[in-house]
User: Which sequence fits this backbone?
């Protein structure tokens, strides 16, 4: 199913439909403030495994991240957020960043790395924000695979390619091509793991 949503003011009825689909273990492709993401409810283990099969990745080695709706939402899934780190997060979020933080007990085990960390995003995108808020907890976020730029940015092409594997593809317009900037906040100083769309001062 290809659903057209308004980028700045997504239709509440369709957002509710998407959230119910996720809660029932379904998969979606959805826009973010960087690239289009393939996602599911983080508490639906079989759905996570399905996404990993589509992307041909091992969930234990994939370093999967997820979308939160706010900083307070993020704090449920990350532990030991000090005041300096909170200020840094507040300065950069919502935005095109993935922050690696120590995972709390609320984070599903399948999403934790061997170091017991997790990548968390708070996207600056109305559709992604609305879905997470309606669902009531985070949505898995992994980039949509594709060999060409068009396959990763055009929702209609994504529907042609993944329409039989992913039940709902959201058309929120042409997507971006630059991934999020990944910053590791588990040590004494922030470490940039991947430079992406978000600008982050180097130490």
Assistant:
């Amino acid at each position: 199913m290809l659903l057209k949503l308004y980028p700045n003011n997504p239709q509440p009825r369709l957002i509710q439909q998407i959230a119910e689909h996720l809660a029932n273990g379904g998969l979606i492709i959805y826009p973010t403030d960087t690239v289009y993401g393939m996602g599911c409810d983080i508490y639906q283990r079989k759905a996570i495994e399905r996404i990993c099969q589509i992307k041909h990745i091992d969930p234990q080695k994939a370093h999967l991240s997820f979308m939160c709706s706010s900083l307070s939402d993020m704090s449920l899934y990350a532990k030991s957020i000090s005041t300096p780190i909170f200020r840094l997060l507040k300065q950069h979020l919502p935005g095109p960043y993935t922050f690696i933080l120590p995972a709390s007990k609320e984070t599903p085990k399948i999403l934790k790395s061997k170091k017991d960390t997790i990548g968390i995003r708070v996207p600056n995108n109305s559709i992604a924000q609305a879905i997470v808020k309606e669902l009531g907890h985070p949505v898995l976020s992994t980039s949509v695979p594709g060999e060409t730029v068009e396959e990763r940015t055009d929702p209609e092409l994504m529907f042609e390619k993944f329409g039989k594997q992913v039940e709902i593809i959201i058309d929120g317009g042409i997507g971006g091509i630059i991934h999020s900037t990944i910053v590791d906040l588990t040590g004494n100083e922030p470490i940039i793991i991947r430079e992406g769309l978000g600008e982050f001062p180097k130490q």
User: Anything to note?
Assistant: The mean pLDDT is 94. Strands lie at 2-4, 28-30, 37-39, 65-67, 97-102, 117-121, 139-143, 168-171, 181-184, 191-194. The chain has seven helices and ten strands.
